[in-house]
Every structure is written in structure tokens, then in C-alpha cells.
Design a protein that fits this description.
heterodimer; A: mainly alpha; ABC transporter involved in vitamin B12 uptake, BtuC; two-stranded antiparallel ribbon; 11 helices; globular; B: alpha/beta; Rossmann fold; 2 domains; six-stranded mixed beta sheet; four-stranded antiparallel beta sheet; 10 helices; 26% strand; binds adenosine-5'-triphosphate; binds magnesium ion
Amino acid sequence: MGAVELLQFALAGLKNGAIYALVALGFTLVYAATGAINFAQGEFYMLGGMLSVWAYAGLGLPLPLAGLVGVAMTALVGGVFELLAVRPRKDGDLLAIIIITVGGSMVLSSAARHLFGPLEKALPAFTSTGTVSIFGAVLEIQSLWILGLTTLAVVALWYLYNRTSLGRAMRACAVNRDAARLVGIDPRRIVTVSFMLAAALGALAGLAVTPLTQTAFDVGPSVGIKGFAAAILGGLGNPIAAVAGGIVLGMLESMSIAFISSTYKDAIALVVLLGVLFWRPQGIFGASRREKV
Amino acid sequence: MNSKSSAALDISGLSAGYDRVDVLRGIDLTIAPGEMVTLIGANGAGKSTLLKAVVGLVPPAAGTVSLFGKDITRMSPERSVREGLALVPEGRMLFGPMTVEENLRLGAHTRDAEEFAAERDRAFELFPVLSERRTQSAATLSGGEQQMLAVARALMARPRMLLLDEPSLGLAPRIIAEIFAALETLRTGGLTILLVEQDARLALRHADRGYVMRTGSIALHGAAEELLANDDIRLIYLGAWRGEGE
Ligand SMILES: Nc1ncnc2c1ncn2[C@@H]1O[C@H](COP(=O)(O)OP(=O)(O)OP(=O)(O)O)[C@@H](O)[C@H]1O
Ligand SMILES: [Mg+2]
């Protein structure tokens, strides 16, 4: 295989990895706040695309505004989902919450099918359907948007975590919930905000991808699994590691296509998931275990 | 109890426990504004549970708690800290991966950003070593520094009433002296303090009054000097405390 071809696969891996990274960040955020896995995360990805299409084609909003509406509405859905489905489970029982999110994901995808129909939906490319050439490899302009928006989201999240009172409170809650309460942080509020942010990140991914791959009511679960695998790969606790996990997973998939066969692409996430859970449950970026005093 | 409404903290008939285990049985305890009161008792007597029930980490099953005349029974910790009640919890419960500065900022979560700097400088005055450790993560501090940070973090909320759960635990005498000197400074500044201590002698030497807890109820209370002179206390808590391990 030539270098250009390899680069081509690497770029595709990077693009998919960026998407997985956004979805994985959503898993990480909810996990940090609740200790539970939110299996509805993939549906936020689906809703991001579907609601943006609805705002664009249905409401006739200009694309940037439609995208904003799609992401914001998904964030709202995330918050309402938490308030109605997760918060009433006051004892915070993890298994119960996980099952609730599984059920919730089915509700969300059926609702989307009901409201928007079973057909695939598309959005135009954000700026251009053209491509750029990078050392001979070809990349869609839309993929540059995906990479750019992911970078932006990661930077924004970093800023939130490290520079704002809300972000500090979120981290404090993840480290020690009781200690956070003692300084005046309401963990329930943190959980709701985390669901909203997770939903917004998933939605952003779904929005950015729709011009390339189209979307439908049933795209959630497969992306959900990949985002979950990426988050597990990164060790779940750490947002930066989740992003790295996403990129690594995207690359692994691409390389499996390059060197083995495209047949196995979708199995890679499962293999990674099981492999990490068996051999390295703390993730590949080891020291991400939460420290406690 | 004619001073009830003017008490800084008034605990009356308080019962609480965990799931099916009753730990506290009808606790009565009153602290006047500006007082330093200590609560002593053997391991497992329920001292920590009492503090947790007061701040709202453990829901009381019966009884009332009021803070400067305001009923705070069953108020959540995140709200009671806004009423001026702060707890330095057992085991410190710092935000380990976060820096000293961040821990202090979190302590000031209920306060305006402008108030933070002044509050932090006050904490650094009390515990100068913390200012040298500002950018260090809490988990990497020495035990003494961690305890100082735990106290400083609680103070950032500008409480009127401070609860401390065994701040001397596992620390060298020199560090303990420093922490108690800080408590004296705070008391002089008008802060009301309830101090849970394993080291009864130390606690009674600093406190105005003391309560002795035995398996979930108050066995005895009185002026600190009286308790220090009390034969039973001497035998059980002042003589034996050295042998009780940590
Ligand atoms: N989270 C909990 N769940 C169930 N039981 C608990 C819990 N915490 C404490 N207990 C029980 O409640 C009783 C009182 O514990 P508590 O921690 O209040 O005692 P303490 O007086 O603070 O002891 P120590 O001096 O060792 O700190 C003990 O029997 C303990 O086992
Ligand atoms: Mg205790």
C-alpha cells in the first residue's frame, strides 16, 4: 500500500475518530456526574442531525441557525430526559439508571421515527461539497468542519472544566459528592447540566456528520456503541483521554479496512470494548483513575 | 432552655441512623454564640453521625436542629452552608486531584467572585503554609497541610458556626498545636465552634464546655474544667485515650 493511500485511510480514521470523540465525551460527562453509563448518548447524536434537518427543511431556517437550534434542542431534550427519567431515581442506583437510559434510548428513537418518519434525511454541506488535497490524499471540506468543530468543542469543554465555577463544581462532584455538597454544590443540578452538555456534544457530532452520511431515526445505537468503546478506551474518567480514545478507535477502524477488510470495521469497536474491559479496565491511558483523599 | 432562640446551634431530641441502623437516640445539645464546645466519646459512639445529621448529610429521623433561631432540620448540606453552617468532615474529604487554590475556590462556591480573594488571603494568614502550596494538588500535601486546607476550605464559606470532626487525627503534636491555635484565633474572632475530638484532654483544654457521647446518646455534659476533673472521664477518656489507637 502506498503512502498516499495510507494517508487517505488515516484521514478517514481521524474524521470518524473526531465523531467518536464527541460522543465519548458525552459518556464521560454523565459518568463523572452519576457514575452511570448513559446508553441514550447515541440518540443525542441522532437527534442532533434529525432536529437540525427539521429546523432547516421544516422551519426553513438558514443552515447555521438550524444547526444551532438542533444542538440546543437536543441539549434541552437531554436535560428533560434527566429530570423526568433519571432524577426520580433518588437512590442513584447505578443499574437502575443504566436500564432507564436503555429504555430512554428506545423511546427517543421511536419518537424520532414517529415525528420525522423512517426515511433518511440529509443536510447540505456547511460551506462546500468540495475537497482539499493533502499530500495527494483527498479530504472533504465537510470533514474539515468536523475536525474543526470537534477541536472547538474540546477547547470549550477544557475552558469550562478548568476556568469556570460550574466546571470546577462538576469536577468536585466527580471527586467527592458529599464534599461537594458541603461547600454548597447541588449535585442534582450538576447531573442535569452534565446530561445537557453530553446531549449537546452528541448532537454536534450528529449535525456535523449529516451532510456526509445522512441521518435517520435509527443511527443512534451503532454510534453510541462506538462512542462508548472510545470512552472505555480512554478510561471513562478523563475527558482528554476520551478524545484520544475516539481518535484511536477511528484509526483502528480505518487501519482494519486498509489492512484486513472493510467487513470487520464495525466489529472493531466491540473487540476494543471487550479487550479493554478484560485486560485494562482502567483504559489505555492508565493513570486516569480518580484520585481521592 | 430559655436561651433556645438565642443559641447558635440548638439540637433537640435528634435521632438519626443509616438505613435500618439507629445510631443517634434523642440527642440534646446547645451552643451559645461565640462558644467553643467539644463533643467527645469512644469510636463508634455516633459523633460523626451527629455532625452529618446536623448539616443534612444524614437525614434525621426525629428531633430538631436550629441555627441562630432558624430551623434547619432536614435542610440539605448545600443549603445549610448558605445559612452559615460549615463542616470540616472526618477524613478531610478534600478534592484530591485539584490544587489548593481550587479547593479554596470551591470552598467559596456560595460566595461572590470578588469576596474570594479577601477570604483566601484570610485563610493564608491563618495557615501560611497553604499559600506556598497554592498550585500543588491537595492529594500531594502532607497530612497536616491537608487538615489545614480542610479547615481553610470550610472557612471560605464564611460560616457563623463551624463543625470540626477530629481535626487532630493522625497529626504530629506540632501540627495539632498549629491547628488549635488557628481555632483559638477563629473563636476570638467570634466564630462559634463545635469540635468533635478523639483526644479528649486536648479538646477539653481548649473548649468552654464539653459533651460526652456514649452509644448514640449524651451521657454527660458540663464545663470543660469540670469534665477534665471528673473521675469517670479521667478514667475512660483521659487515661485510656492513648491506648485507643488512632
Ligand atoms: N455510612 C454508614 N452506614 C452504616 N452505618 C454507619 C455508617 N457510618 C457510620 N455507621 C455506624 O454508625 C455508628 C456510629 O458511627 P460514627 O462514625 O458516627 O461514630 P464516631 O463516634 O464518629 O466514631 P469515630 O470516633 O470512630 O469516628 C457506628 O456503629 C458505625 O458503624
Ligand atoms: Mg467519627
